[in-house]
Every structure is written in structure tokens, then in C-alpha cells.
């Protein structure tokens, strides 16, 4: 949808006149470094050109008008700056409201209300972080509207994460909001989630594309398993800390892990910690491979990442494994893995240009035969972080 169409829709809903502003914040895909963000490790996400847009106009009173073209049935949801509490009936508005609440908690006073139109082209709940994009979008809108110049883009990521943790009750790490706020066209972000130190690494795929497949399944395990994995890793860390001086699992190398792993008493916990340690090292090596223009090695590390998520961390599922197995077996596919939290959602693959059409057609067909519904394919580009548009 074009900006002009969004503005026209806004005026149709809320009336004409006044100064209208528009903002964009992207979704993201993580190329490698999965389930490392809460283990003190590295991640390597990039912002997509897919994302969420907002059209906004100030109001003289303290009321808030919310309308999403993705949730049209709910119509305009009216609330106010004096009612920034979660509301189950207007579920999606809890994301922007949470960010407003987080601004006020930080001491930034929001002195007037707004009418807001939202539109996004990221599939919701598929692991491409539509929620983080909505949070960063709201943060940018508030920063610009109220002239909070001392708030940086990294602050917007932190505020988004804070609101998702504390207002929406989802215990996510910083990766998603960071990628949405700080993304850079044609680059991925090599982020140390422990220190928030980051570097941009150019993703130059001369004869290949990044292709995301949405399995269109989401198993109900997601939330409980996520919390289980976090707890398992925390316990494993405490066991390791009895025998070696580390702050996070990200501080260990593979050799270090092998040396100390017997301190972890439970074999399942040992596998979880192994994934966290090895995946972090794989991520470091993958970024190096990319810097050396060794896309082939990058792909092999993606494949190894999937293997580890499937068998050691056990966050894959049958549908995702079908997609990854089909992709990895196809000549012309450089690498393929699950991306996002797991138990459904999306895979990410690097596919040679000449293979992309076949990839979509053949995997699409076989997936439908095996699973019974269609997968969705997105040939994506790496875009910039949140911006005024
Ligand atoms: P993910 O972040 O992986 O896409 P989540 O379940 O964390 O999945 O977030 C999806 C939720 O974010 C949606 O159910 C909705 O509440 C909110 N959301 C995302 N995009 C939009 C949008 N364009 N309009 C309204 N709400 C949205
Ligand atoms: Mg989310």
C-alpha cells in the first residue's frame, strides 16, 4: 500500500485537515544466532523492507484513536492517555499503548492525544517480529511528535523491549526491537546481546537471494517451551559457574564447554547449553565468513544451526523440518534453517538466483502435499531501520 493511499484512508476515517505525519518500522529476519540473545551471545539479524506504517495526527485533547488496516473489524478503538492499561478486547492496541506507558514511566510526558492509522505487511505471529516493528514504530512516532531529541534509536529498541516484557507480558530479548530500530539497507547487524555492542556487516549476495518460507503453523508450545529453555539455560549456567568463571553461556568457547560440561548434571540441560555455546560461536564464525565473502561457509553454518536447534535445543517441528530438509537437499540452495523462536513460523534460506523459481514451486508443491496447506514464500530485501517517511 502506498503512502498516499494510507493518508486517504486516514482522512476517510478521522476527517481531513491538520498536519499529518507518517512513519515506518521494519520487521526482521535473523540470519543466524538463535536462542542466544538471552544467553549472553551474539545474534545476526537484518531489517526487512516489509514492515509496519503509521499515519498520525495530533489531537487537542488526551484521547487516542487507534485503527489498524490489519484488524479492520475492530474499527476505531478509542482510548486515552489516562487509560494506558492492557485491554484484552483490543489486543493489538496493547503494543502501542505499552510503548506510551513506557515513555511515561521513563519520565517523558505525553501532553496530548493522537489519531493513529496502522498498516503492516509482515505476517503476524510468524517470527518476523511484527510486534517489535509496531513498538519501534510507536516509539519513533512519540519521539518525533513530542520532540524527545535525547532519545536515541537504541533507546527506542530498549523501550520497545521493556514494554513488551512489562506491559504485554512477553519475556523477549532485545534482538527484534534492535533490528527494527537500527537496521541498515543491505547489512545485517552483528549484535552482542550482553553489551549491546554492534557492528554492521554487509550482506553482499552476488548471485543469490534471501528467501523466507512461512510454514503457516504455530504450535501452542511456543510460550511454555520458551520459558522452559530459558530456565534450563539459567540452571546450566549456574552449574557451570561452580567450575569456571563465566557470566553467561556466551563467554564459553566450544573447547571450554567440552572441558566443563560434566558440571551440568542433566543430559537434556547439557544439550540446551551446548546449543547456546556452539550457536554463539557459529554466529561469530558466520559473520567472519561473510566478511571474507565466503557465502558457502555461511550457508554451511546456517545448516549446522538448524541441526542444533532441531536436536539439541529441540525448538523445531515437523512442518519446519520438512521445509528445511527440502531446501537443504536442493542444488543451488546455499543454506537453510529455522528462524525465530521456533515451533512453527518461518525458515530462512539463501538461494541462488537461478534456483529461486524452482525453490518456490517445488518446495511449495511438496509442502502442500505433505502438510495439507500452502506455505508462503517471500523473496526479501534488507532494508533500513525505522524512519520518518
Ligand atoms: P510476531 O512478532 O512474530 O509477528 P507476535 O505474536 O509477537 O508475532 O505479534 C503479533 C501481534 O502484534 C499481532 O497479533 C498484533 O496484536 C500486533 N500487530 C502486529 N502487526 C500489526 C498491525 N499491522 N496492526 C495491528 N497490530 C499488529
Ligand atoms: Mg513478536
TrEMBL record:
Residue ranges annotated for the Galactokinase N-terminal domain, each copy included: 8-57
Pathway stated in the Swiss-Prot or TrEMBL entry: Carbohydrate metabolism; galactose metabolism
UniProt entry tagged with the keyword ATP-binding: yes
Subcellular location: Cytoplasm
One annotated Gene Ontology cellular component of this protein: cytosol
Site feature (Transition state stabilizer) residues: 28
Keyword hit for S-adenosyl-L-methionine: no
EC number annotated for this UniProt entry: 2.7.1.6
All residue ranges annotated as the GHMP kinase C-terminal domain in the record: 286-368
Any one GO biological process: galactose metabolic process
Highest taxon listed in the record's lineage: Bacteria
SUPFAM superfamilies (UniProt xref): GHMP Kinase, C-terminal domain (SSF55060), Ribosomal protein S5 domain 2-like (SSF54211)
Major localization listed first in the record, in broad terms: cytoplasm
NCBIfam families in alphabetical order: gal_kin (TIGR00131), PRK05322.1 (NF003705)
Family of this protein: Belongs to the GHMP kinase family. GalK subfamily.
Name of this protein: Galactokinase
Naturally occurring in which organism (per UniProt): Dorea longicatena
